[in-house]
Amino acid sequence: MKNLYxxxxxxxxxxxxxxxxxxxxxxxxxxxTQLTAKLDTINTAITPxxxxxHYGTLFAGNLLLANSNRGxxxxxxTPPGAPDSNYQKYLYKKIDTMLTAFALVGxxxxxxxxxxxxxxxxxxxxxxxxxxxxxVYKIAHNKGFKIIEGVDITFSDSxxxxxxxxxxxxxxxYNPDGVSNDTLDATRYxxxxxEMMQTIIDSLAPDYLSLENEPMTAQHNLFGLVRFTPExxxxxxxxxxxxxxxxxxxxxxxAGSWDNIQYFENYVTTxxxxxxxxxxxxxxxxxVNKVFIIDSLAKLHNKKIVVGECWCHKETLDxxxxxxxxxxxxxxxxxxxxxxxxxxxxxxxxxxVNLSQSDKFEYVNFFNSNAMFGQIPWDSPYYDSxxxxxxxxxxxxxxxxxxxxxxxxxxxxxxxxxxxxxNNPEAVQDNNQTYNDLVYPNPFNYSTTxxxxxxxxxxxxxxxxxxxxxxxxxxVSGNKIIVERDNLPAGVYFYRxxxxxxxxxxxxxxxxx
Length: 513
What we know:
The protein has two domains: 22-419, TIM Barrel, CATH 3.20.20.80; 439-511, Immunoglobulins (Immunoglobulin-like, Sandwich). The chain has helices at residues 2-17, 26-46, 85-105, 126-142, 163-174, 186-203, 215-221, 230-243, 261-267, 290-300, 317-320, 329-335, 342-358, 388-404, 410-419; strands spanning 58-62, 109-111, 146-150, 208-210, 251-256, 274-279, 304-310, 363-366, 439-440, 447-464, 470-484, 491-499, 502-511. The protein is of the alpha/beta class. The termini are far apart. Helix 9 links the parallel strand 5 and strand 6 (274-279). Helix 1 packs across helix 14 and helix 13 runs parallel beside helix 15. Helices cover 39% and strands 18% of the residues.
């Protein structure tokens, strides 16, 4: 409670005592320019992929109030300690309010993060945590939400993970029973995590379960005790699929768009139902063309595709540092609370929504959905003196206050309007549609055939590269359109056949060497 009073005082002090407009940090201006240019390129590349038809993608937000990285804060107001029933009733009410607010945006599903090893039976307080999640699942399902469960690794950084639980994590990994000094290795990890995921399946029954994500993040949070190379992670996924009794729950696995593409090349060979990718940084090829390649791999192996987490990191190219983010998680998150980034956020959301329709994504989870309920202007010189943690707390106070009053911010209103047509009952939801079922062979080396259901008269075949640039345009007719490779390099392409400026058919072509 003292912290809440302190945060409220800071907000009031800033609102009533600043005397001059504060110029945003110089690196923010540069980041905004660079990110806007990159997102314009991304949106241009998505345009030829989509024929304008709607696909019933589920959109979701992360239920941060129930995120397992909050540890003891899920149980008691004064960590560490046993569950406080009055506090938990208060927390359940806030979670109920947050879900009601999510429905305002148009979300039909919710991501509830439960990270390893919090539900392993031998982990401290695991039964209390399980009881907590049973109640949260009940609240979410009663409100009609489908539940997405991504089982990653508890954050070992006490800036993100609750400090007392982080201490439990370290003890558990290095000396679980306090006697044997049985340090975690791959064998114990597989046994433990299988047990935990079976508990989630049997006791909670999510609508989707993603079992391995962000392998390098996992390796870091396990202090390097288990190595998550592409080969090792493939073995882990196969082990889980062989040992879990899924009861028909769709199971998936994935990695970050910044991770080695070999993870995805390996995953598509397993028994999983869907491929999950996370996307945050958008520089280099982490969106165009990495995301497009991931999608192609999934579709070629008849795997559905989901976006388990996404939001745009607010950073300059220098802060990105040639592929490795310089800023820590708290710095990234604190920037998100400011309306200064509104145009960047809307361009990113537009890209994810349009891509979800063009490539028929099962679901998309906007991780930082709190920002949908209000962002604050950078209009006070006193912000310069506050830490990222303090800025984050100020922003969250505004966000949760607006949720309590069921008020959308500008970003939430933008998102609601963008996805409203997709949520319309008349939106297409053909989950059994075969991708590129009119093209054979695909991939191809020298030529392929686009088979149409009926003859067409004078029409136009347009082929685009992954950057949205037209690489070929030619007149066609009949019901069998032969596409010659000619001088096109190996890679992924998209085609449209149009007649009188209306799209007759569209799809994807893959040329192999």
